[in-house]
Design a protein that fits this description.
The chain has about 375 residues and is an alpha/beta fold. It folds into 2 domains: about 250 residues, Alpha-Beta Barrel (TIM Barrel); about 60 residues, no CATH class. It is about 45% helix and about 20% strand. It has 16 helices and 15 strands. The strands form 3 sheets. A 9-stranded mixed beta sheet has the order 7-8-6-5-4-3-2-1-9, sandwiched between helices. A 3-stranded antiparallel beta sheet has the order 10-11-12. The protein is globular. It binds iron/sulfur cluster.
Length: about 375
């Protein structure tokens, strides 16, 4: 089973922390849709019959900048070029200012059955500081609108650890979460990526950088509060009520094959248990369209993945999840005694209570381990 990711590269305006690929004009929407349909057809000829599709994810950019007709066209093209008999989940990212109940109802009719809503904050001051296009009022109403349209499966994104954000302010956000009880929450600490407007503001002393110790305190508060509300903390940044884990993200974390469409999208396809390829599309809308007008795939980098890289990637992806590393799987597939190979590091991490090993022979991070996730993963790579 495989997954498809569609990168829709349009946004109303630039959020100050964002380093994804997008454009803020709509001049190229029609040529982009034509190019995307060509890419779906070309990749369908190459991979369409290899594996059935399990999940589809519209990300970006902002997919909700597309019309319902455009979304319908894209899904119909996927239906005609891929095996869709086993599709479980079709997720769609949206921003609260783009949609109303009528749009959401029509979206359900296209087959989309899960929403990922970019709320980020309920505070008007924080939204303005981040240069988000929506207001706090729109953030408050979008969950009701989604439910009214019939979506019971949705996630909200929230950002914590803004430079001046206090624990009390973040607790107010968590209180709102308790009131609206979304089935899934993805919550990320604010990171400063090179080249973003936020990066420049910090360089020019307009803003101060987020403080690590503050972000750690807010993350800890998040884990405690959401677990207390009944959410399963099933990945470093992901919390779900029972039955509402993201199937698409789980496919990434369990190393399943996926194809990415649209500018800057990544793909991963393995030929067998120990070899695969990864490639990336050009991060330029004009070039992307031009390639596909010539019926050429818009790939910028393709790299073969060796057995050791596959293993390290498996470790990296799986350690971010509650399910953790399946040590029997590593033994079977990679012929590696992981515990023997990393004995010294594992002993130290067990003493520090950063990891645990379950009865089913899975090595996973503890809550303490989640706090220092990157460092622990660094210790355990081969
Ligand atoms: S809407 Fe999303 S993709 Fe667009 S600029 Fe903001 S964070 Fe980036």
């Amino acid at each position: 089973m495989a997954s498809l990711y569609l990168h829709i590269p349009f946004c109303k305006q630039r959020c100050i922390y964002c380093d994804f690929y997008f454009v803020t004009t709509h001049r190229s929407t029609r040529p982009f849709i034509d190019a995307l349909l060509t890419e779906i057809s070309l990749q369908g000829q190459a991979y369409g019959q290899e594996e059935a599709i399990e999940t589809i994810y519209f990300g970006g950019g902002t997919p909700s900048q597309l019309s319902i007709e455009e979304i319908d066209l894209i899904l119909k093209a996927i239906h005609s070029h891929f095996n869709m008999s086993d599709v479980d989940e079709i997720s769609f990212e949206l921003n609260p200012d783009d949609v109303d109940v009528t749009y959401l109802k029509a979206l359900r009719q296209t087959g989309v059955n899960r929403l990922s809503i970019g709320i980020q904050s309920f505070s008007e001051a924080d939204l303005r500081w981040m240069n988000r296009a929506h207001t706090s009022e729109q953030a408050m109403h979008i969950v009701d609108h989604s439910r009214q349209a019939g979506f019971s499966n949705f996630s909200i994104d929230l950002i914590f650890g803004l430079p001046t954000q206090t624990l009390q302010e973040w607790n107010e956000t968590l209180q709102r979460v308790q009131n609206i009880k979304p089935p899934h929450i993805s919550t990320y600490s604010l990171t400063v990526e090179t080249g973003t407007p936020l990066y420049k503001r910090i360089q020019n002393n307009v803003d101060t950088a987020p403080r690590e110790e503050n972000q750690a305190a807010l993350y800890q508060a998040t884990m405690q509060a959401l677990t207390h509300m009944g959410y399963e903390h099933y990945e470093v940044s992901s919390f779900a009520l029972d039955g509402f884990r993201s199937q698409h993200n789980q496919a990434y974390w369990t190393h399943k094959n996926y194809l990415g469409f649209g500018p800057s999208a990544h793909s991963f396809w393995r030929q067998d248990d120990l070899h695969g390829n990864r490639w990336k599309n050009v991060s330029n809308l004009k070039k992307y369209i031009h390639h596909l007008q010539e019926e050429a795939l818009p790939h910028s980098d393709t790299e073969p993945i060796s057995k050791n890289e596959l293993l390290d990637e498996y470790i990296m992806l799986r350690l971010r999840t509650l399910d953790g590393l399946d040590l029997d799987h590593i033994q079977r597939q990679f012929k590696l005694d992981f515990i023997g190979q990393k004995k010294e590091q594992i002993d130290q991490l067990l003493i520090a209570n950063h990891i645990a090993i379950s009865e089913s022979n899975r090595l996973h991070l503890t809550e303490n381990g989640f706090m220092v996730c990157d460092a622990v993963i660094g210790e355990l790579l081969i």
